[in-house]
Design a protein that fits this description.
CATH class of one domain in chain C: Alpha Beta
Low-confidence stretches of chain C: none
Strand content of chain B: under 5%
Distance between the termini of chain C: 41 Å
CATH architecture of one domain in chain C: 3-Layer(aba) Sandwich
CATH topology of one domain in chain C: Rossmann fold
CATH topology of chain B: MetI-like fold
Number of strands of chain C: 10
Number of helices of chain B: 8
Shape of chain B: flat
Mean pLDDT of chain C: 89
Number of strands of chain B: 0
Distance between the termini of chain B: 46 Å
Order of helices and strands of chain B: HHHHHHHH
Chains: A mainly alpha, B mainly alpha, C alpha/beta
Structural class of chain C: alpha/beta
Oligomer: heterotrimer
CATH superfamily of one domain in chain C: P-loop containing nucleotide triphosphate hydrolases
CATH superfamily of chain B: MetI-like
Radius of gyration of chain B: 20 Å
CATH class of chain B: Mainly Alpha
Strand order of the largest sheet of chain C: 6-7-8-3-9-10
Number of helices of chain C: 9
Shape of chain C: globular
Chain lengths: 218, 220, 250
Amino acid sequence: MDPLSQLSFILWGVPTTLAISILSFLSGLALGIPLAFIRVYMGKPFQVMVDLYEKILRGVPEIVMMLLLYFGVGLALGLKPFDEAFFAVTFALGLRSGANQSQIFRGAIRGVGESQMIAARSLGLPTSQAIIHVMIPQTFIIATPGLGSEYALLIKDSAYAFILGVLETMKRTDILRMTTFDTVFPYFASAFIYILLTFPLATYLDMWGSRKRKELGL
Amino acid sequence: MDFIIEFLPRIFDGFLVTIQVTFFGVIMGLALAIPLAIGDLYGGKIVSTIIKFYVEFFRGSALVAQLFIFYFSIPTLLNIRIDWFTVGLVAFTLNSAAYQKGYIKGAMESVYEDQMTAALSIGLSKVQAIIYVVLPQSLRIVIPAWSNEFCSLAKSTAALLTIGGKDLTAAGRTMASQTWRILESYTFIALIYFLWITTVMKALDILYNKVKIPGLEVSA
Amino acid sequence: MADTVMECRNLWKIYEKITAVKDVSLEIKEGEIKLLFGPSGSGKSTLARCLALLTTPTKGDVFHRGECLTRPGVNLNKARARIGFVFQHIWLFHHLTALGNVELGLRRVLKLPKKEARERATKALREVKMEEWANHYPAQLSGGQQQRVGIARALAMDPYIIILDEPTSALDPELIGEVTDTLRALAKKGTTMFIISHEMQFAREVADEMIFFNQGMIVEEGPPERFFTKPSSDRAKRFMERLIKRTTKE
């Protein structure tokens, strides 16, 4: 196989890599935002629960989580759809990302500051409305660089999916190595592909975030 | 529970591997990150460009790809053999240094300007100013970020199993496949990770509060 | 005739867009106190930093006790060790106690043994009446106390001149007195000083000569009394009036 067709063989894994990372990022977002606001604005028992969730998800390796969900829950317990490797991987990364994003948003809420909340409440907005119309928009701006690196992290971590045999970039790289016996080109090529997937977006979001913050004086 | 007791020695061996690779990676990563941060800040354009490429390679690509490069590609290119344990030590050190360089550089920049000028004003040289003024403050500030780096490195050592490493996760997988107590095996392994990672992070938290400069509120 | 301690000739400092110091020459003699004042943004700090060799001038020369320090190959660290500098925003080393701040230069620059460094540092702290706060960290001290430690840090190195860049302007009004008192005591002992300050009462008491500085240039210089009675330039006159009005109001 010539290098070009080798490269295209690997590149066919990119859509799956993107699918895993985008879906787990969105699940993480859906989990992280409410968790962050619960942690900041609700009572002690909720705080303890959110903290525990974050501690567990940040204290257990992603790979162990995937093995646990796929082999343990999916295959041993037979719980659908965890017997689908793609689902198990995305679910595990989504849970982990939820914990990370909760922390990112919590930091951002602190960054926006108490005064914005008080100002919103002084207009007569109820807490929920104040959160939706005043806090969340500003929180997003501050959180953007953090979210950018979280997304890059998910792209890189999605490579663990190859352990469960999901046919994504890393798995295709490994197949290529086994069929061509070339131990050099495939790995450097895929490392380069991952850099292309992570670097521009994270850099752009970082720049956008700091520019926006400066503009708004946050 | 018998199956756990039966597998305990194996789990313990795997745990030792995980601990060794993690601590080695974090500490050697720090040792490498300090000169990288200093080089990036004061080394001029060429040095900082080289450092940028290094950092972008290790931060931008998937860890598994890095492990494979060290396990398969580099031995082929250099015509040598490297065992998985050595690959683990080297790859995790280089990977961690790339992340830690960013944290240390950030902390150094946050204390840099004013403190450097003040240090020069009493006659310290630039090198002395870095050693006696900038670094002692930066290293204190960097502990929370360092704790996060420890956490993510400790978790990513699980990827050793992809190059045939016999770490904690690999031991768990063996236990699961030999006993067919799959859910229990992985839960047990997850628990061990959770406990040791949380304990070390707590210890770093205590350390941070202990060496914190009295009265000073800072964030990196 | 006393010896010249510090001198600059035709000093220029040009940044990309602005010229901060324009062709300034001045001279300070042993035991003399010169006080520089002028509007903010006029380049006072830049001048002070050039004199202390913390900034490299674009053109012109700086001499310390007859030695030209703007020539290439001069060991600037060694030179800076004998020039005391006190910063507007204080800039103590956050991670060191008051004593540690004063000791650092003695130990690492002058390479004094531990015991001697401690003695000298304690003596310097005593001179600014901060001895009993020796073991406190900067963040545990008030602004005035911090600035006194800053003065002690400069003093301990046994400098032949102390340059003070608006030592009181970052302080709360009620804390200014303790710092100016410290400086008065130093003045009484004959310490050579170059002070940037707008504390006019203090200036009148301690300065041998005052310099009005505007737009990077020396506009007028002379004994304090002349500035307080009839400054010759219009700008200096107006600026003095404003300053005096402000101080009497407070």
